[in-house]
């Protein structure tokens, strides 16, 4: 196991910060590593707390009377200079329970009312997103959405189009569009499973 010597905070931003880690690898070679983190301070980083609390939520939601559509957002992302299809998602506020955060984020991004499902904790525990670059982890919340789409609660910095996709549209999106990987894998299940949430009822 490598040995970490010190960590330096390089930025002071609201949503994400860059940290520099000086370490020695298991092969006794020097390591200079950069980590993006939602943490506001070195003490709050997961490398220090050793606690995997969710920084954000990803919302896999079905829509419609037959629950045959999935709620997606087509969002412009500066990281690629293009649009990408994702599930509605967002950061969990301090002291906010992550299911409550999912309800809030769904309303803010889409205008829809979201009702989370109660599932085995293993399906919704926070998992790491891109561990080679960041200590960020997100919990996936599953459920059903209803209501009318609205952009009224979206932030001015967001460029989001809400998409209610049936299976044919999901097929097209997976073949032709940029798709976030965590969304893509779930959409593959959505295409193949008669009951998309059936796997949530299985024991792990």
TrEMBL record:
<dbReference type="InterPro" id="IPR020084">
    <property type="entry name" value="NUDIX_hydrolase_CS"/>
</dbReference>
<dbReference type="InterPro" id="IPR000086">
    <property type="entry name" value="NUDIX_hydrolase_dom"/>
</dbReference>
<dbReference type="GO" id="GO:0006753">
    <property type="term" value="P:nucleoside phosphate metabolic process"/>
</dbReference>
<dbReference type="InterPro" id="IPR015797">
    <property type="entry name" value="NUDIX_hydrolase-like_dom_sf"/>
</dbReference>
<dbReference type="GO" id="GO:0016787">
    <property type="term" value="F:hydrolase activity"/>
</dbReference>
<feature type="domain" description="Nudix hydrolase">
    <location>
        <begin position="52"/>
        <end position="187"/>
    </location>
</feature>
<dbReference type="Pfam" id="PF00293">
    <property type="entry name" value="NUDIX"/>
</dbReference>
<protein>
    <submittedName>
        <fullName>NUDIX domain-containing protein</fullName>
    </submittedName>
</protein>
<dbReference type="GO" id="GO:0019693">
    <property type="term" value="P:ribose phosphate metabolic process"/>
</dbReference>
<keyword id="KW-0378">Hydrolase</keyword>
